[in-house]
Amino acid sequence: MPDKPKPPAHKIELNLREVGQLFNTMDPAPFPEKDLDSDAEEFILSWVGEFPVNAPVSLVVHVAELPPGGTPQATVEQGVHHYFAYRARMNRMELRRLFNDGQKSLLIGLAFLSACLTASHAIGGDGSATFRSIARESLTIAGWVAMWRPMQIYLYDWWPVRRRGKLYQKLSRMHVDVRKKT
Q1: Whether residue 30 sits in one domain with residue 51
Q2: Whether 150 contacts 106, CB under 8 Å
Q3: N- to C-terminal Cα distance for the chain?
Q4: Judgement on whether residues 69 and 158 belong to the same structural domain of the protein
Q5: For residue 62, what are the domain limits?
């Protein structure tokens, strides 16, 4: 069975005056370890978010003025890969922190729910006394409301964080091409 041909990579194109515009000028780190400029990062992320997660992407950086000594291909590619690999690591930490928060809030929510249900049953009554009925229902509702946050974390909050992490991983491996503007 022949191998499937790879689909062509979606291109993200940046037009810059000079290579330095791609990187954060406030970052004192040497070139390959520099942070990307926040506008450049936002531009790249907004474009890559438009493509399917599994679709390959490449970055083409068009530069009006190449630095003396030729094309900075390796430096730019290394800098972009380094930055997005760092962001992917930070994203994994954020996801781990989110699940830790979920675990703590789940334990707190379950303890509070148990206390509320126990207090609700302790109030007792056959339902004819209005005050008792309101108190029982209020405790039951309060206990279940305490479960809102852990349910939100485990059912919904982790998806966008995970999706962003996949984008960072993809960007940390994408092909980067530096070209002189013509």
Answers
A1: yes
A2: yes
A3: 43
A4: no
A5: 10-91+171-180
Domain presence at residue 4: no
* C-alpha torsion 158→34→73→55, nearest 10: 10
Query: Which residues, in sequence order, are CB contacts of 135 under 8 Å at separation 6+?
Result: 120, 123
| Residue 24: partners with Cβ closer than 8 Å, 6 or more residues away | 34, 35, 36, 37, 38
Residues 102 and 139 in one domain: yes
Residue 30 has pLDDT above 90, yes or no: no
Mean pLDDT of 138-158: 95
Do 16 and 86 fall into the same domain? Answer: yes
Select from 14, 93, 57 the least CA-distant residue to 167.
57
- What pTM does this model have? 0.80
Task: Please tell me whether residues 17 and 42 are part of one structural domain.
Answer: yes
Q: What pLDDT sits at residue 176?
A: 94
Residue type for 158, please? W
Tally of domains in the chain: 2
β-bridge mates for residue 57, sequence order: 10
For residues 30-46, one letter each, b for 16 or more C-beta atoms within 10 angstroms of the residue's C-beta and e for the rest, the string is eebebbbbeebbeebbe
Beta-strand relationship, 10-18 and 57-65: parallel
* 68, two tokens: 């003396």
